[in-house]
Amino acid sequence: MPFAESSQLLLETNNRVTARKRKASTTQDSPRKRQRVANEPELKKASTEHIPATQTPGMTTPERGCDVLPSSIGPLGSKQHNQCSCFRGAASKADFEAEYLQLNRLAEGGFGSVYAGFRKTDNFPVAIKHIRQADVERQPTVLNGVMCQVPIEVLLLLKVAGPESVGRTGVVSILDWYDLEQEVLVIMERPVPSVDLLNYLDINDGPLKEDMAKTIMRQLVEAAIQIHSKGVFHRDIKPENVLIQTTSDGLRARVIDFGCGCISTRRPLHVFAGTTEYAPPEFDMYGSYKAGPTTVWQLGALLYEITDGYKQFTTTLVLRKRIKFNKELSQDCLDFLQRCLAVNPKDRITLEKLLLHRWLA
After folding, report:
1. DSSP string, 216-266
2. Which end of the chain is less crowded, N or C, counting CB atoms within 10 A of the terminal residue's CB?
3. pTM of the predicted model, to two decimals?
4. What InterPro entries does its record include (predicted)?
5. How far is CA 262 from CA 69, 71, 107, 155, 232, in A?
């Protein structure tokens, strides 16, 4: 299919769209200061969507385009009600309100709303995600010895960063979850102080210095390797889905929002879920993509945005050979970017080799 036609298909066949919006920080909002390059046409704001390339026979979860695989998760370890909370209505709103205090809204999107809050027993800061039952996709899972229909986002978080890993990984951990009649509540740790990477660019008033970008990218590559090692495919790595936490030891990058994620397999996927501007070129050209090469592509797209600072990345720019890199970047950084953004996925560097790249050394 010619590029122009496939791009049109990409825009016309989506069935779930969330505009790429500014997410609220856990501290305070800052206005967007980045300006687009002069004389460039206005680019469509990125959106998070599920886009079928074709109808694939035997696809068990057509919206996500992922296979449903039986899973097993050990004890959640936080509250006794988790043993049965996988059953619809088993946990009440009163149970949630007895454990947590909900405060202001932090973000809102196609996959739900997120609020700040605290755990009442110890004032531990949490983020509370509300997802409508109508939007919840589930997977059969053995949880604490009981077969449950677990929300996929909950399952992915439990696989990658359960309650036992709070503050210790590059992924924000799940603490608890409640399966209510009208919605699912996902309780996660809330790094404080922190702000999403897109807001961090605004606060920085433009592109990040290369050394700072390197620090963030090293942590994100490590987090991506951790996520893949657990058999999970995030599918929507972008500045809005990375928190930058300020600590006494420096900046920490934390991956959030597995709302587009799925269980990873070696087989290619034929339905894209994520931000269309970050969709890998192989999906646009051939209608299929795989976890590893896609994650590398999205990491390269993210690095482009944080080191350019003025123009939003789109895969279309690469395919039309209209992408221009910041001339102030070192040769090692440029090599890193070009290896991530190789149009042919077979030529793209792997995550493991990315971590060993001389730019991150």
Report:
1. HHHHHHHHHHHHHHTTEE----SGGGEEEEEETTEEEEEE---TT-EE--S
2. C
3. 0.80
4. Kinase-like_dom_sf, PIM_Ser/Thr_kinase, Prot_kinase_dom, Ser/Thr_kinase_AS
5. 10, 12, 22, 9, 6
Give one DSSP letter per residue of 279-297, joined into a string: --HHHHHHS-B-HHHHHHH
Contact 232, 224 (CB under 8 A): no
Going by C-beta distance under 8 Å and a sequence separation of 6 or more, which residues neighbour residue 277? 20, 43, 44, 46, 47, 301, 312, 313, 314, 315, 316
Condensed to tens digits (0 to 9), the pLDDT of residues 287-345 reads: 999 999 999 999 999 999 999 866 789 999 899 988 889 999 999 999 999 999 999 99
pLDDT higher than 60, residue 131: yes
CA distance 184 to 162: 17
Report whether 148 contacts 72 (CB < 8 A). no
Domains in the chain with CATH codes = 3-62+193-355 (1.10.510.10), 71-189 (3.30.200.20)
Q: Residues with catalytic annotation?
A: 236
Q: What is the pLDDT of residue 15?
A: 33
Sheet containing strand 47-52, edge to edge, reads 17-19, 47-52, 271-275
Tokens representing 126 are 């949490």
Contacts of 100 (CB under 8 A, 6+ apart): 117, 118, 119, 120, 126, 128, 187
**Beta-sheet strand order (sheet of 124-132):** 100-109, 112-119, 124-132, 183-189, 174-179
